[in-house]
């Protein structure tokens, strides 16, 4: 991401696009403690196997790993604790309806800093079947072959 605009990518969930069909992306805030912010700035985070759930008409992210802050004390955070998402009520209702009616789930796709604040990008996701995953792999390999062929032609000229 562009440093001049004030955005800095921390982590990306690359498995999400492989395991799910993604649609309707949304930037949301995260309710974090001080040591979590410091750890994000120093060490990053992991979004592998993380997902978003609904509890008491609020959204929470599960299994997002933010490593323990090295210079923290006994009040350091739990790395895999459940973290609340900061969203408007209309956005929450829209995503809840999509989850209940259409069989979608919500997955985090990336975490980044925007103007000094930690943001999480979430997306509505529908699970892929095995043949869909194979198709994704085949399409990716074809794109690589095409890119290599184009690069080879440029080198020859």
Descriptive report:
The protein has 157 residues and is an alpha+beta fold. The chain has a single domain, classed as Small protein B (Small Protein B, Chain: A). Helix content is 36%, strand content 33%. The protein contains four helices and seven strands; from the N terminus they run E-H-E-H-E-E-E-H-E-E-H. Strands 1-6-7-2-5-4-3 form a seven-stranded antiparallel sheet. It is globular. The protein starts with 6 loop residues before the first strand and ends with a helix. The model has no long low-confidence stretch (mean pLDDT 85).
Write out key terms for the chains shown:
157 residues; Small Protein B, Chain: A; seven-stranded antiparallel beta sheet; 7 strands
The averaged pLDDT comes out at 85
Q: Any idea of the CATH class?
A: Mainly Beta
Kindly, what is the distance between the CA atoms of the first and last residues, rounded to a whole number of angstroms? 33 Å
Order of helices and strands: EHEHEEEHEEH
In what range is the share of β-strand residues? 25-35%
CATH topology: Small Protein B, Chain: A
Summarize the structure.
By secondary structure, the chain is α+β, with helices and mostly antiparallel strands. The protein has helices at residues 14-19, 34-43, 89-102, 130-156; strands at residues 7-12, 20-30, 51-55, 58-62, 83-86, 105-114, 117-127. It has one domain: Beta Barrel (Small Protein B, Chain: A).
Annotate the secondary structure layout.
Blueprint: E1 7-12, H1 14-19, E2 20-30, H2 34-43, E3 51-55, E4 58-62, E5 83-86, H3 89-102, E6 105-114, E7 117-127, H4 130-156
């Amino acid at each position: 991401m562009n440093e001049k605009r004030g955005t800095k990518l921390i982590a990306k969930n690359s498995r999400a696009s492989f395991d799910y069909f993604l649609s309707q992306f949304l930037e949301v805030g995260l309710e974090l403690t001080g040591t979590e912010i410091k750890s994000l700035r120093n060490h990053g985070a992991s979004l592998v196997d993380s997902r978003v759930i609904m509890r008491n008409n609020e959204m929470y992210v599960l299994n997002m790993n933010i490593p323990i802050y090295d210079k923290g004390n006994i009040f350091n955070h739990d790395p895999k604790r459940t973290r609340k998402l900061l969203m408007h009520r209309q956005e929450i209702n829209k995503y809840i309806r999509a989850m209940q009616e259409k069989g979608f789930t919500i997955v985090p796709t990336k975490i980044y800093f925007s103007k000094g604040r930690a943001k999480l990008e979430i997306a509505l996701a529908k699970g892929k079947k095995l043949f869909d995953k194979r198709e994704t792999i085949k399409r990716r390999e074809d794109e690589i072959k095409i890119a290599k062929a184009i690069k080879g032609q440029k080198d020859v000229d």
